[in-house]
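**Reference record**
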Amino acid sequence: MTDVAVHRPGPRAFAELLICELKMVARDTAGLIVPIGLPMLILVMNASAAGRETVAHGRTALDVFVLPLVFTMVAATTGIVNMPSFLAYYRRSGILRRLGVTPASPTMVLVAQAVVGVLQIAVGIAAAWILAMLAFDANPPVRVGAAIGVLALTVAAMYAVGLIVAALSPTPNSAVAIGLTVFFLLGATGGMFGGRDSLPEAIAVIGQWLPFGGGTQALSAAWMGAPVEAAHLIGLGFCVVFGTVVAAVFFRWD
């Protein structure tokens, strides 16, 4: 009997998988438009009035409040709603189980989904930023490095929450339903439907530790040049660790 050498897929195989994932996302019209269109709509609805109100260091309410909210929404809809629905579909259809008995590990699908999601988030944020600059004279953050770091941590936290949704959702439809519920709950406690001052004190305190509120408020601080509160960074970091651990415990390939 001749031994057959088995090799792990290389960069070319991963590139092909990545292209397939990009095609899947491109064909999902609702999943492609909503994470970009909904935040853009929020931006347009609030930009004119907010752009006339100066907050600090020459930054307006558009810069300090609206843009952080829009960027966080892009990350949340992609990480919490879109990504879990794809993984639930792959599990329900048996794709992950079949990959598990081949040299191509199902982990490659997770990595490819993460890369595609980050690209989608980057496109959504770039589109919102270009629109805000060209149409409403938006200003860059005072602390650019801090804003980029907070945004990256926010994206990671949203994906960690999305992994919990994917781990607990038995079907693609349930993944969308659970993801939307979690998205709106996090958004409600994080000021998506009004400023933090309009929330009950207890909910406002809880919201700053959750990824939507923590990400929005940390981005706002970086935009106006204020120190980013430790509570926001700790909350985002905890969500990353907690979501990853919970997903690792409960996630099943079939």
